[in-house]
Amino acid sequence: MGLNHSFKTARKKIVALDADEREVVMAICRDIYQAQVRLTENARPILERCMSNCRGLCCRNIHPADIITEWDLLYILVMAPQMEEAMAACLKRERFFPSDCIFLENGTGPCLFPDNLRPERCIISFCRVEPSVEKEIGRVMGGFSRLIRFFLFRPLRRLSRWLRPLNSAREP
Ligand code: SF4
Ligand code: SF4
After folding, report:
1. d(CA 167, CA 149)
2. Domain assignments of the chain as residue spans, ordered by start
């Protein structure tokens, strides 16, 4: 499945949230944002190397759909809904062979997404092990895992909410 499908799925998931669920998702996304802030700050020297040595080689000649997931798109759409139109325009350029990332601004870069609103793999992946930011990487990964778990268990939580009044009505 391509990124267009992930984008549609992410949008549908957001639209289906009720007010309470929206609050929880917002809180998780804010935590991911804070974790990305900390990672970006502490990885500054490493990221400078990315820019000076290879000018963002990792964003070129890739399959964006192998890197970017519906959870990344959902995170970005929750935190920056105003990005939706620009993202949809980029997605029209989706190809199924390796190419420069469709989210490079004007096809050349930098990345379209604002600082700290980056897909998980874009922000946590470096071309070598970086022990100095292991903890910060773990926090970003933990945030995305919570986001995924929230949606995974959402149907069960909804069912138990629906059953609760029925059960209390049956109680003597
Ligand atoms: S992670 Fe490595 S290969 Fe990728 S842009 Fe940075 S320095 Fe270059
Ligand atoms: S989303 Fe941004 S950081 Fe990630 S590969 Fe595309 S251009 Fe690079």
Report:
1. 26
2. 3-170
Q: What is the 3-state secondary structure (H, E, C) of the chain?
A: CCHHHHHHHHHHHHHCCCHHHHHHHHHHHHHHHHHHHHHHHHCHHHHHHHHHHHCCHHHCCECHHHHCCHHHHHHHHHHCHHHHHHHHHHHCCCCCCCECCCCEHHHCCCECCCCCCCCHHHHHCCCCCCHHHHHHHHHHHHHHHHHHHHHHCHHHHHHHHHHHHHHHHHCC
Site of tokens 């963002």:
56
Residue nearest to atom 1 of ligand 2 (CA): 103
| Residue reference for tokens 């290879």 | 54
Question: Partners of 104 in the beta sheet?
Answer: 111
Residue 113 alpha carbon, nearest atom of ligand 2:
2
pLDDT in tens, 47-105: 888 888 877 788 999 999 999 999 999 999 999 999 999 999 999 989 888 889 999 99
Q: Are 133 and 57 in contact (CB under 8 A)?
A: no
* Contact predicate 53/128, CB 8 Å: no
Ligand nearest the Cα of residue 113 is 2
Single-letter amino acid code for the residue at 102: I
For ligand 2, the distance from its centroid to the CA atom of residue 107, given in whole angstroms, is: 11
Atom of ligand 2 nearest to the CA of 112: 2
